[in-house]
Amino acid sequence: MKKFIAMLMAAAMMMAMVACGNTASNNGNSSNNGGSADEGGSTDGTVVIRIGGIGPLTGDNAVYGVATQLGAQVAVDEINALGGPIQFEYNFQDDTGVAETAVSAYNTLKDWEADIIYGCTTTGPSVTISAETYADRYFQLTPSASSTDVTAGKDNVFQMCFTDPNQGVTAADYISANSLGSKIGVIYNNGDAYSTGIAEAFIAHAEEIGLEVVATETYPSDKNTDYNVQLNACKDAGADLVFLPIYYSPASLILAQASAMGYAPTFFGADGMDGILTMDGFDASLAEGLMLMTPFNADATDDATVNFVESYKELSDGVIPNQFAADGYDCIYAIYAALQNIEGLADMDHEALCEALIAAFTAEDFSVDGLTGSGMSWSTSGEISKDPVVVVIQDGAYVTM
Amino acid sequence: MTAMKQARRLRKATVNSFINYAIVIAAFIILQILLGQDMISNSIQSMLVPVCCYIVMAVSLNLTVGILGELSLGHAGFMSLGAFSGIIVSTALKDVVAAEPLRLLIAMLVGAVMGGIGGVIVGLPVLRLRGDYLAIVTLAFGEIIKNVIMVLYVGIDSDGLHMATKEANLVLAEDGVAIIKGPMGAVGVTKIASFTAGFILILVTLFVVQNLVDSRAGRAILSLRDNRIAAESCGINVTKYKLMAFVVSAVLAGAAGALYGLNYSSTVASKFDFNTSILVLVYVVLGGLGSIRGSIIAAAILTLLPEMSFMRSSSLKDYRMLLYAVILILVMLASNNPTLRRAFGAVGKKFKSSKKQEGGAAQ
Amino acid sequence: MSFLNNVITGISLGSIYAIIALGYTMVYGIAKMLNFAHGDVIMVGAYVCFFATGSFGLHPVAGVLLAMVVCTILGTVIEGLAYKPLRQAPSLAVLITAIGVSWFLQNSAQLLWGAAPKVFTPVVSGGLSIFGGQLNISYVTILTVVSCLVIMVLLSAFIGKGKMGKAMRACSEDKGAAQLMGINVNSTISMTFAIGSALAAIAGVLMCSAYPTLMPTTGSLPGIKAFTAAVFGGIGSVPGAFVGGLLLGIIEIFAKAYISTDLSDAIVFLALIIVLLVKPSGLLGKYVPEKV
Fold it and tell me: How far apart are the first and last CA of chain A?
């Protein structure tokens, strides 16, 4: 009898889980309605392009993966609703932030007969996958994997975000040009490629242009919770500006701990800092005066951003999109724009499409206006060129400087 | 009579070993045929090498946990040593040894040696500890390896290998390449691992582990598990045999690591963390402590399970990892359920006794 | 002064490890099982308190109580469904089930509450400032240390005296003999889990008050660190968990401050290995001589 009740409870628990989850995550595949419509096979002249996405939907980096998944979903839904000659099918697979799983996810997408690979969200898996897509000749556009290793030597891989060295150099130049600080401390995650990449470029460039870096402090992973030692080291070294090329979740702890110890330098972040204001329960006064380089501002009042934020919130149960989501949205529109420049789309397999898209992306006159920048264009190395925007947080909102 | 009994027991062990070889070989042949017919999806194909690696990891960990009876939570550390040393060797020998299989073999041998050295370093002081204290020290070792490789920069140029702990300090000549770049891990690795190599590695692993277990040393190791004090009082050198099992296990893990590292174009140290160690332990326990065959099957099934197409289908993919957890719990409960066990045991016994009768009749 | 500051930082980090380790060590000491899902019960407790105080506007104390109730129920359900059927199974089987439960809780939390990190509102805020602001001790740290001490004393008293405590000790010594003495081993172990889970809720709230980021994977790393702390102090020993947690925190902070932030994890674990080699059963662990 006891066992029976136990089983019953287990079953009930499972049911409850499934029921609860359904409402939140029904949105993964809303565009799969044309499942059987094969690429180019339809008679009314529409071409169906399959976009396979990869990113972490579970595990430590899930928040970034989910953002890129849903950001792209918004764009896919919008484009499909237009009813134009190009329609998208979209399938986003979980890589848990690990290369091994990413390879499996990528091959699942190959089995699904994807035409274009969108991803990965994080750098580590991206480096592995870009080698695979290069060998298999799939066009790949990553929203957020910012290391130069992702694109190095692979003509088929393009980035929507700034590269790490690019951000580090831009930050150093900006700080120096606006004389924001004379003594600079750097705190970064030396277990993370993104953070290390920016920090090293920043430190190297700061030396060249004569900025004084007085403290370089690291921590091993974003699960780290205590940053007092690193902050104390910066404080003792007299740093009046602390550069934080890290993600917003550890940054929120750093800001809180700095405030608790009464240390108030200027904090300067990179694009991973975007999202800090939208954290559930975050005390925005902690971030007062925080500067960051972000291509996207969810509070912007232009129509494109407002519409995007609204659609995104609908998909995500009210979560406000960050720059990961915006980059994902722009990725799909960039692909859409490039596809429109290609003739004979209907007869192309993924290899032909890859070559055509490479040509389209690197074409002289190709540029895209999106949420994260206007006039975005790409070099043959796959790096994006768009203007970095530095904002400062005042009264809980971004103010463009 | 006793001689006959002994002979029969020996034969039983040998037969058991041969069944394991047969299973592995049969699986390989079937998979090769299916691959030839192009009947296996890309996603499963891409999992073949990692599955081989995890099988070797599970069988080798079984030697420590199931046969020696000591809990180890740092097995991925040895894999990590093997992976990164294998990658360094393979990259360094790129121009010297052109034949990929030979280079892979050398890389795996170096990986095995590095794993073994790690095994001795950890094993010597540590095996004096017991139970959970040993477990925590192996865990600590795994974390140390991870942490150290994460800050390590290794490059190679015409002058040889260079190492540093900061990227700026890694100064290479113009023809140099950075092999390991701190948190980025190893990037731009030439993929030379193959399913066949994985298959051979499994056979070698089976050969080593099964022969060790069936040998005099293996019986000494088993006796340590069953009753250390009694074994010690019979004059068995505890440290020697413990270390033997531990190091053999580490050597195999190192070789598996090298194969794993050379199967991807990039590898990061954080992959070989506590979670990977735990995952391998899950295979071992689920397959049955001390059961080599169990480890093989559990590792293969559990590695493939979350990557199966139904788990990645649109209706289930959001619950993939949740389902995986639930299945794991249910299987643990079912396999340890006395009622089910008895039911299976009865079937097994009936099967066995009928076979015995047949055998008796034939004699 | 920076030395004292580091000591204080170490204590505040260590007290968090300690309070998690208390729950760990109590379950281990009595049920003889490593409950790897403990860290995830902590995460659930923190989420419950987060929603209770944030979304429903409850008083923090009510939030903590609610978290304790929910975690106790959760712990009991987990124990009944996943661990109890394995009483006769080898301890490693239970360990693996606990890992399964841990993954289950993490993934359920993500499906239920999303992957985005939430910022926990500390149950107490502010801090003591002494020597003209050169030293800062946050109230959360003081509260955590005090809670640790109170829990430690209560636990010791509970286990040391009273019928239930005696039954628990008897189970920990020898389950078979305890059964023969008429002790209901099953319900005693279930009781241990219930208490351990309630402690996890307190630990979760205090941890997130000190370091207010809350994610589905928040519990996993502190869980491992607390396990390390419990072993450091001698697993199964209640005062050992407290001492082990504090020391681990202080070593971690000192390693970062005086040696290298790059290698702090490696140094912490190296220190752990050295301590265990010198004292193989932890700092305060009992050496149990083996009988033949």
Answer: 69
DSSP strands (E only) in chain B = 153-157, 160-164, 177-181, 186-187, 266-267
- The reported pLDDT for the residue numbered B335 is 83
Query: What are φ and ψ of residue B314, in 5° steps?
Result: -65, -30
Q: What radius of gyration, in Å, describes the C-alpha atoms of chain A?
A: 22
Of the listed ranges B156-160, B228-232, C22-26, the one predicted with least confidence: B156-160
3-state helix, strand, coil in chain B (%, to 5): 75, 5, 20
Between chains, do A58 and C110 touch, taking CB under 8 Å as contact?
yes
Spatial distance between the Cα atoms of C190 and C196, rounded to a whole number of angstroms: 10
* For B146, nearest residue in chain A (alpha carbons): A191
Q: What is the DSSP letter of A277?
A: G
Tokens of A236: 């003792």
A142's tokens: 């990553």
Per-residue pLDDT for B293 more than 90? Answer: yes
What phi and psi, each to the nearest 5 degrees, are found at residue C22? -60, -45
Could you list the residue range(s) of the whole structural domain that residue C38 is in?
A: 16-218
**How would you label C84-115 residue by residue, b for 16+ Cβ within 10 Å and e otherwise?**
bbbeebeebbbbbbbbbbbbbbbbbbbbebbb
- Domain extents in chain A: 45-162+304-308+317-385, 164-294
Q: What integer pLDDT is reported at residue A316 of this predicted model?
A: 87
Tell me if A62 and C212 make a contact (CB, 8 A cut-off).
Answer: no
A45-162+304-308+317-385 and A164-294 agree in CATH topology: yes
Average pLDDT over residues B30-39: 91
A45-162+304-308+317-385 CATH: 3.40.50.2300
More confident residue, B210 or B336: B210
Tell me the pLDDT of chain B averaged across its residues: 87
Which residue in C12, C81, C117 is closest to A279 by CB distance? Answer: C117
Phi-psi region of B69 (alpha: psi -120 to 50; beta: other; left: phi over 0): left
Residue written as tokens 């264009």? A377
Q: What is the DSSP string of C80-124?
A: IIIIGGGTTS-HHHHHHHHHHHHHHHHHHHHHHH-SS-EEPPPSS
pLDDT tens figures, B130-187 = 777 788 888 899 999 998 888 888 988 888 888 887 777 777 877 788 889 888 889 8
Is A280 in CB contact (< 8 Å) with chain C? yes
**How close A56 comes to chain C (CA, Å)?**
10
Quick one: A164-294 is in which CATH superfamily? Answer: Response regulator (3.40.50.2300)
DSSP 8-state class, residue A319: P
Residue in the block written with tokens 């095995």: B112
Rounded distance between C-alpha atoms, residue B186 and residue B178, angstroms: 8
Q: Which helix (H) or strand (E) holds B355?
A: helix B338-362
Would you call A233 and C119 a contact, using CB atoms and an 8 Å cutoff?
no
Q: Residue A152 pLDDT > 50, yes or no? A: yes
Average pLDDT, chain C: 88
Nearest to A20 among C112, C210, C264 (CB): C112
The complex's ipTM? Answer: 0.88
The pLDDT value recorded for residue B1 is 52
pLDDT digits (tens, 9 = 90+) for A248-269: 989 999 999 998 888 999 999 9
Look at chain C and report how many structural domains it folds into: 1
Residues C81, A252: C-beta atoms closer than 8 Å: no
Q: How confident is the model at residue B200 (pLDDT cuts 50, 70, 90)?
A: very high
Q: Could you tell me the pTM of the whole model?
A: 0.89
Q: What pLDDT is attached to residue A154?
A: 92
Give helix C220-233 / helix C238-254 axis angle, nearest 10°. 110
Instruction: Give the closest residue to B185 by CA, choosing from B215, B217, B146.
Output: B146
Q: Give the CATH architecture of domain B2-309.
A: Orthogonal Bundle (1.10)
